[in-house]
Amino acid sequence: MNSRIEAPVIGYTLGDQAGIGPEIMAAALAHLPSVAEYRPMGASIDATPGNPTEATARAALEQLERAAEELRCGTIDAVVTAPICKENLHKLGFLYPGQTEFFADRLGVRDFAMCLTGKRLTVALATTHVALRDVPSILKIDDLVRIGRLLANFLRQTGRENPRIALAGLNPHNGEAGAFGDEESRIIAPAVRVLQSMVGAEFSGPCVPDCVYRDAAEGVYDAILAPYHDQALIPLKLLDFDNAVNATLGLPRLRVSPDHGTAFAIAGKGIANPSSTIRAFELALASVR
């Protein structure tokens, strides 16, 4: 973490304002310490809770564009983004699978990855939204090394010195010495050997996937690099459903968001839980102090 004299500036968006974005942002801001300037990336609009429209999608997109520009220019030190409705944004020409890819593209970053972090587990994903049958052919040594380095940098950026990172195996029991899969010896182990030469982080693996998440939850590891989406997200959401945060690794300044959707069904009812948004702001602050 960097020491600084001036107060940091943390930007935030409201997401699709027909969802719970405005209320969880308001609740989070009321909870936060006055150690930073919290700057909105756009104004509130007249939106009916639970009724997303083209106007709410357009307002969400405009706030994302402003947030990306201010991150790029350095007029904000980090940004917390509220949930968006990707289906409605796609109708406006939004070409990205999600906010991760949007911010990477707008900031000209090609080396990026998705990380989910809660109070008990932090996981990065080697592959994201692909069919499970395609994972073995997509998994590459170079990508594991690249994402492992990004994950270590993120952990140091948010306060963990010399982080301990486990690379999870792909197959049950790590493939039982090749009896039902060799990705552990052919792909994951070579990546671990490369990463172990990295100064400032400790890498282990391949770790048996049905045990490593328990170990991490008990503090043996600071984070896990998982080979596919659900292997990581199932334990994360079991343990950290209300406080998990989505972080884009590799950006010059941190972008984080609560790890949940717009929740149109409960918007405006005053029951949305702001815990994930509060934690997102806490991580944003930790990255710039």
Describe, in plain words, how this protein is organized in 3D.
This protein has helices at residues 21-31, 54-73, 86-91, 99-106, 135-138, 141-157, 183-195, 209-217, 229-240, 275-288; strands at 9-12, 37-40, 78-80, 113-117, 122-125, 164-168, 202-207, 223-226, 245-249, 254-258. By secondary structure, it is an alpha/beta fold. The chain has a 10-stranded mixed β-sheet with strand order 2-1-3-10-9-4-5-8-6-7, with helices on both faces. Helix 1 crosses helix 10 (275-288) and helix 6 (141-157) packs across helix 7 (183-195). The longest helix is centred in the first third of the chain and has 20 residues, at 54-73. The N and C termini lie close together (6 Å). The mean pLDDT is 95.
Q: How far from one another are the termini?
A: 6 Å
The fraction of residues in strands falls at 15-25%
Give the structural class. Answer: alpha/beta
Order of strands, main sheet, comes to: 2-1-3-10-9-4-5-8-6-7
Give the tally of β-strands: 10
Sheet with the most strands, sense and barrel status: 10 strands, mixed
In round numbers, the mean pLDDT is 95
**Sequence stretches where pLDDT stays below 50 over 5 or more residues:** none
Shape: globular
Number of helices: 10
Proportion of helical residues: 25-40%
Order of helices and strands: EHEHEHHEEHHEHEHEHEEH
User: Over the alpha carbons, how many angstroms does the gyration radius reach?
Assistant: 19 Å
